[in-house]
Design goal:
Blueprint (H helix, E strand, L loop, with lengths): L1 H13 L8 E7 L2 E3 L2 E5 L3 E6 L5 E5 L5 E4 L4 E5 L4 E6 L7 E7 L1
Parallel strand pairs: 1-4, 3-9
Antiparallel strand pairs: 1-2, 4-7, 5-6, 5-8, 8-9
């Protein structure tokens, strides 16, 4: 009879575990971001993988981040705030993307 009580106490004491941080990949290829829009949570990582033969960047319109990614390399950003962030490639301004970050 004591085992169910002990199990109940363990569940209450531990409670729900926070979700593990995720990594969301955005590909830079053919002069575009794919996917162009991503949804993440604070603490998640956005990883840009450049498959083109030229350097690209993920530069926030509000200047809050600027990730330069050489050809055939990757760059990352850990999301630290809730909000909607639009970005572009400073070398190829027609390349545009967005990050929607929630709790």
């Amino acid at each position: 009879m004591r085992a169910p009580v002990l199990a109940s106490l363990l569940v209450v004491a531990v409670g729900p575990l926070p979700a593990a941080a995720a990594t969301v990949t955005v590909t830079m290829e053919n002069m575009q971001f794919t996917p162009a829009a991503v949804a993440v949570h604070v603490g998640d990582t956005v990883e840009w993988t450049n498959k083109d033969f030229v350097a690209h960047s993920a530069t926030a319109n509000d200047k809050s981040f600027d990730v330069v990614v050489p050809a055939h390399k990757s760059g990352t950003l850990v999301v630290k705030a809730v909000g909607d962030f639009t970005y572009f490639c400073k070398f190829h301004p027609m390349m545009k993307g967005s990050i929607a970050a929630g709790d």
